Structures are given as C-alpha cells and as structure tokens.
UniProtKB/TrEMBL annotation:
PROSITE patterns: THIOLASE_2. InterPro entries: Thiolase, Thiolase-like, Thiolase_C, Thiolase_CS, Thiolase_N. The keyword Acyltransferase applies. Belongs to the thiolase-like superfamily. Thiolase family. It comes from Erythrobacter westpacificensis. Residues 264-385 form the Thiolase C-terminal domain. This is Acetyl-CoA C-acetyltransferase.
C-alpha cells in the first residue's frame, strides 16, 4: 500500500477566548496563517496543493459559508486551490488529517493540507445549534426519536465528563491535581523552547502573538479548589476542564512521489488511523475502545508507543484512559494538554499532532498515538512514526 507522509506540522499559539491576543483576528485569517506557514516553511510550490481539508466545529457566523474555502481565499494560496470544511466535533482536524492520508494513500492526490481553525471568541461554542431559540422554529439537533431512544433531552459533554468521573471514582482533588500537572508541564515546555518548532506567530495588526496564553503559573491545589463545580454537587470544574481557546493548526500530507518531485523531507509517516463510535450519552469514554481497536488493527501494543496525546477535554477523560489501558503516565501529554494550552475545538486535532510529532523528534522517539473524545460518542486514533 502507498504511504502518506507529514512534511510539516504547525499551530498558532492558543489565544484565551474573549480576553486574549487573538480576539480581534477573523477566524479565516487564523486558518490562513497556518496555510501560509506550511507553504513558506516547506518551500513547496503553492500550485501543487491539490486540496485543503479543514476542520471546524461551530460553522456559523464568521465560520460559515464554506469556511475552509474562505481560509484559502484569505491566504496566499492561489484561488484555484479547493477546500472543504468538515465537522467531527473535537476531532474535526484529526479527521481532516485522516481524510488527507486516505487521499494520498489511494493515489487520488499527492499533496493535501489538513488543518483546523476555531475562534471560540467570535463564534461561541453551541451558537450554531441554538438558532432555533432565536427564530422560534424547530427544537434543535435532537429530534424526539433520538430523545426517546436514549432517554435524554440532549447530549451533554459536561454530563459525560461527570459520568466518567463518577464511574471511575475520580475525586475532585485527583482531577485538580491532574490539571495542575498539565499547567506545570506546559509551563516547562514553554520555558525550554519545546514549542518553538511548531508555533507560528500571529500578526494581529496590533502586534504579534507568539506564546500560548492559557498556562497558569504558580497554581496551587488551594486556588483550584476555589473554582465552583459546573453542576451542583459535581466535581467537574472550569479548572479541571479544557480552556476555551482561539487558534488554528495544520499539517502538510504528501505521497512518496511528492517527496521526490518537490525535494521534501518528511517529519513522520502515517502508520495507522481509525475511528470508532459508542455510547453517545457518556460520550467521552470512547477513546478507550478506540485505542484497543487501533492497537488490534495495527498489530501494536502500548509498549510499542513512545508518546501518547489524549486530549484533555476534561481531566476525567485521559485519567480514565490511563487507568483502563494501564498506560505509562510518563508518556502522556508530556508538554501539557488542553487544560493548560487550550482546546480550540476544530483546530485541536492537528494541533495535538504538531505537538506530538515535534515531541517525538525532540526525544528521539519513534511511534506516537493520538486519540480524541468527540461529541456523539466518537473517537479518532492516529498513530504516526517519526522519521
């Protein structure tokens, strides 16, 4: 079978939603920033890019009307470059990467950009499915047939995160401690320059944003304990959940022939990718069976994997994954995760991939595994081999 290679992987800094440095940047311009960076850093002929597959969750307002195409039009890519926008919830740009790899491995295309962009400031989470409340028509995304089948009025990630915490017996203190460690690792990564190879600064017109803004230094368990729970009597709080963030990310995926034609040097090879789905109510637990499926299909074990990226949508998600998979916590989210660095929804998939690949390269590791919990009880798994 033909191979698919990642030539470069980049991301913008994570901007704090509503109060950070990226709030005045149109989301299409965020997307354009990473598209331009991939072309500029690799030196590839822009005319060679056959498609842009871009993930975005909240496709409304400034992220509506063929958002992926608008990112292309806002970039320096030629107007002849096609684009498509996809939504697999938090895994949207991870799925974009998998679609790009499928295109290359099938021989259909040789050069594809997989990317994601999301401004959670300018297009708030959930604003696309709440339109019925504004126009007085309809009831929202979940018809009575779904409500009857699953016994819920709507699916809630907050309910899912709390259900996982309750199922596995994770205390508020344990999740706060996990979150505090995420901030510690992220701060250490920033101080050591670990993100320099992956971050593309953003010119806002009023200056440059060059560093992730959500990392809280000097945090304590006492300070985290002051944050109220999201639901009364619960243990999930804003402190042990991912941060709402503005940002974009992207990877350049090419065939072996394109490596030769354009004189490119690969960073990584796509070793395995898959997707699975399960319970839409608890929702965020699916990375566990998805990882088992991926390992079985690829003939690998966790011992073969040098680093793991398990998205920190809520602390309970990677904590459950670690416990059930009996994985080595020293390999997990080594530069911090979404609790500290932010979760710009549709951009998080290729954002984590950029961090994973560069972390593998820096540590001399070979294989990395990334998985993501997603709305509706879906999870993607991608295994890459650093080259």
């Amino acid at each position: 079978m033909a191979e698919a290679y990642i030539v470069d992987a980049v991301r913008t800094p994570g901007g704090r939603a509503r109060k950070g440095g990226l709030v005045d940047v149109h989301p299409a311009d965020l997307g354009a920033t990473v598209l331009d960076a991939l072309v500029g850093r690799t030196g590839i002929d822009p005319q060679a890019i056959e498609d842009v597959i871009l993930g975005c969750v909240t496709q409304a307002g400034e992220q509506a009307f063929a958002f992926g195409r608008n990112c292309v039009l806002a970039s320096t890519l030629p107007e002849t470059t096609p684009a498509v926008t996809i939504d697999r919830q938090c895994g949207s740009s991870q799925q974009a990467l998998q679609f790009a790899a499928q295109a290359v491995m099938s021989g259909t295309q040789d050069v594809v950009i997989a990317a994601g962009a999301e401004s959670m400031t300018r297009v708030p989470m959930g604003s696309n499915w709440q339109l019925h409340q504004q126009n007085g028509i309809g009831i929202g995304p979940w018809p009575p047939s779904i409500q009857r089948r699953f016994g819920v009025k709507q699916f809630s990630q907050f309910h899912g995160a709390q259900a996982i915490a309750d199922k596995y017996g994770f205390t508020r203190e344990a999740m706060d401690a996990f979150a505090l460690e995420s901030h510690r690792k992220a701060a250490a990564a920033i101080d050591s320059g670990a993100f320099e190879a992956e971050i593309v600064p953003v010119d806002t017109g009023n200056g440059m944003v060059e560093t992730d803004e959500g990392v809280r230094r000097g945090g304590t368990m006492e300070k985290m304990g002051e944050i109220p729970p999201i639901s009364e009597g619960g243990s999930i709080t804003a402190a042990n959940a991912s941060q709402m963030t503005d940002g974009a990310s992207g990877v350049l995926v090419v065939s072996e022939q394109a490596l030769k034609d354009y004189g490119l040097t690969p960073l990584a090879r796509l070793h395995h990718f898959s997707v699975s789905a399960g319970d839409p109510v608890i929702m965020l637990e699916e990375p566990i069976p998805a990882t088992r499926k991926a390992l079985a299909k690829s003939g690998m074990t966790l011992d073969d994997i040098d680093l793991f990226e398990v998205n920190e949508a809520f602390a309970s998600v990677p904590m459950a994954w670690l416990q059930v998979m009996d994985a080595d916590p020293a390999k997990l989210n080594v530069n911090g995760g979404a609790i500290a660095l932010g979760h710009p929804l549709g951009a998080t998939g290729t954002k984590l991939m950029a961090t994973l690949i560069h972390a593998l390269k820096a540590r001399g590791g070979r294989y990395g595994l990334q998985t993501m919990c997603e709305g509706g009880g879906i999870a993607n798994v991608t295994v890459v081999e650093a080259l």
